[in-house]
Amino acid sequence: MERIAKTTYYRGGRLVDGTGRKAVENGVLAVREGRILYAGTAEGAPEPAAEDSVVDVSGLTLLPGLFNCHAHLDLNLPYKDYKVDEFGPAYRAMVSYRRAAEALVNGVTTVRCVGMDGGADYAVKKAVEKGMLMGPRVLAAGPIIIATGGHGNNDPGSMECSGAAEFRRAARNELKKGADLIKIGLSGGLASPHEGIADKQMMDDEIQAVVEVAHGAGKKVAAHLGGDGPIRDAVRLGVDSVEHAYFMDEETAAMMAEAGTYLVPTLCVSSANEYLMAHGSPAYQLEKLALAQKAHKDSIRNAVRAGVTICCGTDLLPSDPFEGTTATIREVELFTEVGLSPLEAIQAATQNSAKLCGVLEETGTLEAGKAADVIAIQGRPDERIEDLRDILVVIKGGSVIRARFKGLRADFNPAGPDVALAGGTFISW
Description:
- By secondary structure, this protein is an alpha/beta fold.
- It is 31% helix and 23% strand.
- It folds into 2 domains: 7-65 and 363-411, Urease, subunit C, domain 1, CATH 2.30.40; 66-357, Metal-dependent hydrolases (TIM Barrel, Alpha-Beta Barrel).
- Strands 1, 2, 3, 4, 5, 17, 18, 19 and 20 form a 9-stranded mixed β-sheet that branches. A 6-stranded parallel β-sheet has the order 10-9-11-12-13-14.
- GO terms for molecular function: hydrolase activity, acting on carbon-nitrogen (but not peptide) bonds.
């Protein structure tokens, strides 16, 4: 018997498509076989056939699924001063999948992993792509590639290199495994006691070697960057995205904008004093954080004024409970504290992030032909960003993952019924 392709029509809600355009009031989103058939005004929408489903979403605002472009799904806190693997590769893959599933349930339909150990990000990516497990889209970088003794040397998954040849080989090894991007540790950061946040730790020829290898394969390079001088060097040498930018002046921001370099600010990190204290972080990390906190927001304000393309990432787990919501939602809220409007903040977490990830043709906006990655919000987050906290529906590739709304019922839970998917780093584990 020939199967009839049914279309589901979500009617009566507001559509915020992620492109920066104003909301369509009384919109229609039509989804067939996992893809968007139509997104726009009710007046221009096709009529449902007898076999189609119609869901009334009046009172809701429909948005593209959110991105988290800076995640370590195997995050284990507090950071140690030395390499120690408390998970092991098998358990790490399980932990990483659980956290990926939690990200999806909380509205994050795409996760960009920027440094993980033991191939866990590759494993989760492959399992989701093959349909073995339900989860968000995953972009994998493998381990962060750093200078010998550099930022992240206490992470069991980091790959330490010295000299352009070693960096070149490390980048090629990750491309061989199927990396979607390459992540380097170009400057110091918060995690280690022996480094300053703005210390430059890679030489120009080492940076250039990684950029050349990655770009030759059509991949982007993400760089951990704390200080103004190293950011300028990274932009000059062709790095594609700056991660963090704790200290950055107006001239450097203008340089980024002119070059088209993306910025993933991870504002959550410099607001995470209580979070890190609760996880037992040592005093030196909290002191560094206090030093960076005000400067970080000022730096991102410089970027916003200069017109740098801002993308959404947290450095905390995408679903981490943080300041009354999840880390991802809080990051989008923080964008409005550094100069973006609510509509621009949503665009940063959807279209902009999709561009950075190289998946804009597939997802990131509510437009015909794209995958139906959708969240539905009670309220008007394009006008009141805090309404983003009230996610009632999550759809990934047309499949309803989570729903607590009339006419829609779904409760995807890989941990089984009645187990809370609250997120977090699972200290008790």
